[in-house]
Design brief:
There is one protein chain. The chain is an alpha/beta fold. It has one domain: Rossmann fold (3-Layer(aba) Sandwich). 58% of the residues lie in helices and 12% in strands. It has a 5-stranded parallel beta sheet with strand order 3-2-1-4-5, sandwiched between helices. Helix 1 crosses helix 2, helix 3 runs antiparallel to helix 4 and helix 5 crosses helix 6. The longest helix has 16 residues. The chain starts with a strand and ends with a strand.
């Protein structure tokens, strides 16, 4: 299966949250992993904020940034191109949708244009419900 990894799933895996093992298994089992530039920016910002607010030691945040970059080096990255930006301005099945979530959903729809059967890997309930309504498979189940 080809997965589009959204930031909530990536962060759960990086930060060792409750769903870490499920997400890690999905990433390992995937035929290929896609992510948007936006997802990587969001994850990096979370790590910067966590170090700044001392929720993470600076060394740990640096280690997690390296881990993210190493993983992402093997992923296919989607830019926030004009198609994604235009689609994100339109309504989604379950409004209201926040701006960044709209960009993630639009990226998933754009990925589906090129890759049949792409599934969205997310823990975010708004993204899950909208992706399902748009006919996109969602993991974890």
């Amino acid at each position: 299966m080809i997965l589009l990894a959204e930031s909530s799933a990536i962060l759960s895996w990086l930060l060792g949250e409750d769903s870490e093992q499920v997400i890690e298994r999905a990433l390992e089992d995937a035929e290929s992993v896609l992510a948007s530039d936006l997802a990587l920016v969001e994850c990096e910002r979370v790590l910067v904020r966590a170090a700044f607010t001392r929720r993470l030691e600076s060394a740990e945040a640096s280690h997690l940034r390296r881990r993210l970059r190493e993983a992402a080096a093997n992923w296919t990255l989607f830019e926030l191109g004009s198609q994604v930006l235009e689609r994100s301005k339109q309504a989604f099945p379950h409004e209201p949708v926040r701006t960044l979530d709209a960009l993630h959903l639009a990226t998933a729809l754009e990925a589906r244009r090129f890759i049949a059967g792409v599934a969205v890997l997310t823990l975010d309930q708004r993204i899950r419900s909208n992706a399902e309504s748009l006919g996109l498979p969602v993991l974890p189940v």
